[in-house]
Design goal:
The complex is a heterodimer of chains A (390) and B (168).
Chain A (H helix, E strand, L loop, with lengths): L1 H9 L8 H38 L15 H11 L10 H18 L17 H9 L1 H12 L3 H32 L4 H6 L16 H17 L11 H4 L9 H26 L14 H26 L5 H28 L3 H22 L15
Helix pairs in contact in A: 1-2, 2-11, 2-12, 3-11, 4-5, 4-6, 4-11, 6-7, 7-9, 7-13, 9-11, 9-13, 11-12, 13-14
Chain B lengths: L1 H20 L3 H21 L3 H24 L18 H21 L1 H8 L6 H9 L3 H29 L1
Helix pairs in contact in B: 1-2, 2-3
The chains are: A mainly alpha (390), B mainly alpha (168).
Chain lengths: 390, 168
């Protein structure tokens, strides 16, 4: 916001407009940016996802609307806008209507604390990361409201699953992010991104290149995917089991709003992952005086799209996990690993030659991962031999 | 600033009133969430960003979601079989307790000298100061809280274990 204000002041033909007008503009620019750019990214993420899934599953994907189906998201949006809006007769009308609205608001609010470039952040809260965790719990409320108000057993099952899932995956996710807070000593997303500058070509100081950072990235990404109900963790809307889960009874634009909220949350979580572990806007060339900010912004979006691509890739290649596996995975594997990671990060901070610290902490993490995964491996799983001929 | 204060106050009071007067249990919880949001808004208005965020994180993200989860585990999931009358038989005892708590709080706030100082010079509280105070001056209550929570956790496991064994 301040950056936009100072930029406007420095322009020759805008700089001497009255101050309140400039401030209003400085407020409007980030808001318009968040409300326009990220939903656009959402629209084209759906297209990319359908294309990529089609490629993974050996089919074509959407290819009728425009060349390579490039206008497909717009056609989808129009179709959903003019579809009939159905509310079941027994449903709770008010809550049923409120739920999709509440699904979108927290997801949009998440983008207010993600720095897309150095100094380019809508609101620089000094507790930005905590704000992310507080706001992202709002989306579970929307899922619950939608599932509960529909008065449908499948919807209610989806709502129950989503609440249980979010409650248990939030703990390891937050613990995975605390590692970064410990290393930086600040909860502000701006400080966290700035702490990863420097090193060789602005790359080697990214936290992902520390052993604890890599483990933190994996844990955080898994937690984030579980929170936004992406595929290995999409039990709340498992098509083959409970139709569409909490949004079974939604049609038209309410359904679109649910999708929008879910995708925006996933994109925002990818952005938070980039900021926390992948250096945010830092990359080769972002320290240059004038064009550096633009290059940094470019790096941020390149990394963001890379994260989105990874999430789509995981969706295309992984089966959905079972409910008992879901809970066991969160409490028996991710939570102990996150706590061990905290201790290892503290060790890394105090062991002095950093090369030694790197080797020691990497060894400790690999050892504890091997122990944990062997402890929680399912019992009596012997190799099955099939004898069809013999 | 005062306009924002009154809007937030009205929303908070509305949420609190609806939470105790609505008949459907789930509607009550949703209005309670509105009330929690209002309180968080007051914290933000007082420049206490940290408390506002923690209010959302703890009260909406944990307490309200746990209440909803508990409701979903009961047979009366739709929440429609609530009591007929809004005020139960013992409404006066609740009123007396509320009045007592309000009186004590008002007394404490009036007597507290720091309240007057703080209202004259609001200064954003830094998280670092808060953390240092928590592991410095207030370390004994902080650790006591940790012991209490661990005890509660173990107790919950013991209760759950008994139930599992009885079922077998």
């Amino acid at each position: 916001m301040e950056a936009v204000y100072h930029f406007l002041r420095s322009l020759r033909w805008v700089g001497d407009w009255p101050q309140p007008v400039l401030w209003a503009l400085a407020f409007a620019v980030p808001i318009v940016f968040v409300v326009v750019v990220f939903p656009l990214i959402f629209a084209y993420t759906t297209l990319v996802e359908r294309k990529a899934l089609g490629r993974i599953q050996n089919r074509l994907g959407p290819n009728r609307v425009g060349r390579w189906g490039i206008l497909q998201p717009i056609a989808d949006g129009l179709k959903l806008l003019i579809k009939e809006d159905i509310v079941p007769a027994k449903a709770d009308r008010v809550v049923h209507t409120l739920a999709p609205v509440i699904a979108v608001i927290p997801s949009l609010m998440l983008f207010t604390v993600i720095p897309v470039g150095s100094g380019l952040i809508p609101v620089n809260l000094n507790i930005g990361l905590l704000f992310v965790f507080a706001i992202s719990t709002g989306s579970v409320l929307a899922l619950f409201m939608g599932g509960w108000a529909s008065r449908n057993k499948f919807s209610l099952l989806g709502a129950m699953r989503s609440v249980a899932q979010v409650v248990s995956y939030e703990v390891p996710m937050v613990l995975a992010a605390v590692v970064v807070v410990m290393a930086v000593g600040s909860l502000s997303t701006v400080d966290i991104a700035a702490a990863q500058a420097g090193g060789w070509a602005n790359v080697t100081n990214w936290f992902v290149f520390r052993p604890w950072g890599f483990v933190g990235l994996v844990l955080f990404l898994m937690g984030a995917m579980a929170e936004s109900a992406r595929t290995p963790f999409d039990l709340p809307e498992a098509e083959s089991e409970i139709i569409a889960g909490y949004h079974t009874e939604y049609s038209g634009f309410k359904f679109a709003l649910f999708q929008l909220g879910e995708y925006l949350a996933a994109i925002a979580m990818a952005g938070v992952t980039v900021t926390l572990f992948l250096g945010g806007y830092n990359g080769p060339g972002c320290e240059l005086p004038v064009v550096g900010k633009l290059i940094g912004m470019g790096w941020f979006f390149v990394k963001l799209f890379a994260m989105i691509a990874v999430i789509i890739w995981i969706r295309g290649t992984w089966p959905r996990i079972r409910v008992d596996q879901l809970m066991a995975f969160a409490w028996k594997l991710m939570l102990p690993m996150a706590i061990i990671n905290l201790i290892v990060a503290a060790l890394y901070h105090y062991i002095e030659p950093k090369l030694l610290a790197w080797v020691v902490s990497a060894g400790l993490l690999v050892l504890s991962w091997a122990t944990l995964s062997s402890l929680s491996a399912p019992p009596h799983l012997q190799k099955r031999t099939y004898r069809y001929w013999a | 600033m005062t306009t924002a204060f009154w809007i937030i106050t009205i929303v908070t009071l509305l949420g609190a009133l609806l939470a105790v007067t609505l008949r459907n249990l789930v509607h009550c919880v949703l209005s309670l969430i509105l009330f929690f949001l209002g309180i968080a808004g007051h914290y933000f208005l007082l420049r206490a960003d940290f408390f506002g965020t923690v209010q959302i994180l703890i009260y909406i993200g944990a307490v309200a979601v746990l209440i909803l989860f508990a409701i979903m585990l009961t047979r009366n999931v739709t929440g429609e079989e609530g009591p007929r009358e809004i005020l139960g038989m013992k409404w006066w005892s609740g009123a007396v307790i509320a009045a007592l708590v309000a009186g004590v709080l008002l007394h404490a706030v009036r007597r507290d000298a720091t309240a007057a100082v703080a209202s004259s010079a609001p200064k954003p509280l830094s998280v670092a100061d808060l953390g240092r105070a928590l592991v410095g001056d207030w370390v004994v209550p902080f650790e006591g809280m940790a012991v209490l929570l661990t005890a509660a956790l173990i107790g919950a496991v013991v209760i759950a274990l008994e139930e599992v064994q009885r079922r077998r």
